[in-house]
């Protein structure tokens, strides 16, 4: 190593608290590697036999390789350059700079790296082979202690990143199943939740019912007052339905101004009672926007069963009953027959 590289190596976390001169002769077997921005240093499933000390530049550590950033290798297993992507960026665990090192975990446990490491800027690293690493550890207790500290810091940082990633994933999952306007569950949630509850009712040999509900003349509201007022009406109806349904009932915004409800452990007579409570509550609700006040009504179609049927078939039957309620004057309840 030249004098400048020796000074840079001396500042690395691996050599903190010691005189690098005492082990400098061992570093004669190490080489300097130059990485271009976007070039891969470590990748999953490719064995690693080095610890890399960052002399200058910056490396990004990612949880795993993505399609857009999965590099190939040259002969002998040396990674080819690979460009990062926005998908890769979203999986980043850490950014490493001057004075830090990488590759220590896979070198110690003898397994391929679990992360993808890519240079995000022109980077120079000191490559220390595994036999030299163990010789350094045997020679210096300070290096052994520093290596343990590096392990602990790396694992702690990765744990924090994984916790943050899991929290973010749960938020995304929540957003995928909840309608942003009304805060009700949506059809994506319905196709998973409704069948589970239906199967539970069938297992217990209990009846259940499906209700399809539609706000009457909703297009007229949008055309007369504007879509913002239409959104307020949807929110008001959603709140009213939630308040007047039972805790066990499953309510979703099916689409537009239409809602679907699964009433578990409910026969036809009970379903009609629940539907009437919802219908009358909405009819009695006044919707306000500044100086504007108005009311809306809903039509409801019901189908009830105690037999195994496909969800889409039950939705279709309740929809037919809903269409009949619309044809017969709206603001009413009809049952599929």
Could you characterize what this model shows?
The chain has 337 residues and is α+β, with helices and mostly antiparallel strands. Helix content is 42%, strand content 22%. The protein has ten helices and 15 strands. Helix 8 crosses helix 9. The chain is elongated, with a radius of gyration of 32 Å.
Rg, Å, rounded: 32 Å
Beta strand %: 15-25%
Number of helical segments?
10
Major sheet: size, sense and barrel closure? 5 strands, mixed
Low-confidence stretches are 65-90
Overall mean pLDDT stands at: 87
Annotation keywords:
elongated, alpha+beta, 15 strands
Could you give the topology of this structure?
Elements: H1 3-10, E1 31-35, E2 40-42, E3 50-56, E4 59-62, H2 86-89, E5 92-96, E6 101-102, H3 104-109, E7 116-119, E8 123-129, H4 130-139, H5 141-177, H6 187-203, E9 208-215, H7 218-225, H8 227-244, E10 250-255, E11 258-263, H9 268-283, E12 287-289, E13 292-294, E14 298-305, H10 311-327, E15 333-335
Parallel strand pairs: 14-15
Antiparallel strand pairs: 1-8, 2-7, 3-6, 3-8, 4-5, 4-7, 9-11, 9-14, 10-11, 12-13
Helix pairs in contact: 4-5, 7-8, 8-9
């Amino acid at each position: 190593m030249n004098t400048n590289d020796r000074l840079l190596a001396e500042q690395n976390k691996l050599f903190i608290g010691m005189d690098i001169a005492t082990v400098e002769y061992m570093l004669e077997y190490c080489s300097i590697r130059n990485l271009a921005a976007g070039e891969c240093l470590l990748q999953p499933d490719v064995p690693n036999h080095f610890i890399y000390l960052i002399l200058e530049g910056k490396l990004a550590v990612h949880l795993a390789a993505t399609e857009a950033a999965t590099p190939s290798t040259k002969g002998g297993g040396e990674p080819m350059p690979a460009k990062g992507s926005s998908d890769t960026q979203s999986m980043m665990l850490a950014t490493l700079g001057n004075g830090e090192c990488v590759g220590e975990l896979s070198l110690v446990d003898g397994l391929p790296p679990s992360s993808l490491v890519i240079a995000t800027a022109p980077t120079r690293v000191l490559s220390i082979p595994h036999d030299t690493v163990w010789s350094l550890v045997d020679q210096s207790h300070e290096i052994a202690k520093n290596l343990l500290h590096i392990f602990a810091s790396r694992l702690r940082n990765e744990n924090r990143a994984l916790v943050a990633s899991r929290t973010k994933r749960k938020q995304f999952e929540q957003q995928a199943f909840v309608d942003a306007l009304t805060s009700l569950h949506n059809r994506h949630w319905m196709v998973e939740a409704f069948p589970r509850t239906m199967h539970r009712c069938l297992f217990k040999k209990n009846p259940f019912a499906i209700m399809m509900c539609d706000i009457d003349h909703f297009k007229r509201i949008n055309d007369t007052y504007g879509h913002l007022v239409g959104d307020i009406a949807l929110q008001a109806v959603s709140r009213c339905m939630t308040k007047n349904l039972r805790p066990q009932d499953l309510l979703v915004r099916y689409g537009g101004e239409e809602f679907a409800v699964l009433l578990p452990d409910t026969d036809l007579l009970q379903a009609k009672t629940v539907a009437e409570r919802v219908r009358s509550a909405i009819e009695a609700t006044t919707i306000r926007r500044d100086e504007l006040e108005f009311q809306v009504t809903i039509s409801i179609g019901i189908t009830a069963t105690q037999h195994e049927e496909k969800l889409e078939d039950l939705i279709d039957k309740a929809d037919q009953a809903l269409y009949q309620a619309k044809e017969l004057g709206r603001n009413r309840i009809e049952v599929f027959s």
